[in-house]
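Morning - L-rhamnitol inputs below, output right after.
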Amino acid sequence: MNYAAAKEEYAKLGIDTDAAIERLMRVPVSMHCWQGDDVRGFDSDEELSGGIQTTGNYPGRARCAEELMADMDKAFSLIPGAKKLNLHACYAIFDGEAVGRDAIEPRHFAKWVEFAKARGMGIDFNPTFFSHPMVKDGLTLSSPDSEVREYWIKHGRACIKIAEYFATETGVPCVMNIWIPDGYKETPADRYSPRLRFKDSLDKILDIPYDKSKVYITLESKVFGIGVESYTVGSAEFCLSYSTKKGITPLMDNGHYHPTEVVSDKIPALLAFNDKIALHVTRGVRWDSDHVVAFDDETREIAKEIVRCNALDRVFIALDYFDASINRIAAWVIGMRNLEKALLAALLTPHATLAEYQNRADYTSMFALTEELKLMPLGAVFDEYCRRCSAPVGSMWIEEMRAYEKDVLSKRA
Ligand code: RNT
Ligand code: ZN
């Protein structure tokens, strides 16, 4: 079906496809740099730790900043819509200098700022509390060792300054997300003290003055990680309570809940109490496996909640997954395009009509229309959206990705 015909179909439901396309063009989605190099970063040779894992050894991962930037550029060119660059502290560019994570400075990210500015993008940021020798017994901000805690507190504080620098330079607020891997493999003898130490460490990090209109500090909870199956210090209740109490922003990663819990349902709950919320969109397969985001029911439901709560300006949307078993450019592009599709589908849904059915207790119509909507010509509108964003239409991007693989990635021995 062509765009004009699709537009007419949606108009019958009272939906303006042009308005949906224009709205979506203004929704930034933060693309995680760490998909490009299997979460290795540039600041240490440590193995990936923290209970997260990349599996697979598909050839061609980025090995340095130049390669990562080039790969992200390639991915950006294949993805419609507005983007933000999501960096981790371990992607500092040192140029030979030896700098600890407790001492990183804005200048170590100057090249990233240049990169983002040239592309008209904002930057989001993450302190890196894993893959580092100062992670002691799997613990960072909750460690019983005050020297360890001190080191990571300094890291958190250094990162706030860098986040502020990103916002000042790009003119776009920076979301700075705190996630720590701390936890225990076995049932701990003391569940309380680690959380009190984490709380105290966070207080110390947040103690430094920063411009709250420029930096949004988020806190990400988790249920378990590999090797820390029995207890996670930064659990859902801990992180949500802390965020609320301190007026920072909660972040939900949809891989970080029990398999039958859904983040889509949590979005309106958190929006009722928070001006802003943040998301890491991922796909867990049986566990927090961080598979590439698919155009699946829960991704669509997440997008629907954001849109029908009228919260596109209140939800910071980022992707967070890492697949080393397929072409990494494809991993970015597939996940980002799927999220864009989900958002577009949500913008093309007659929410008011459906809500009215619900309020009239006409569940028959609500269900019937919901199911019929699934076969509406979304593809034709998405193609048009891609066209207007100068991004490849349909499966055209696959050839471009393959060409880049042949010309660039395959030469990385
Ligand atoms: C880990 C968290 C965290 C990381 C990134 C690399 O389970 O999801 O967000 O994936 O910071
Ligand atoms: Zn995450």
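Note: The CA atoms of residues 45 and 118 lie 30 Å apart.

O.
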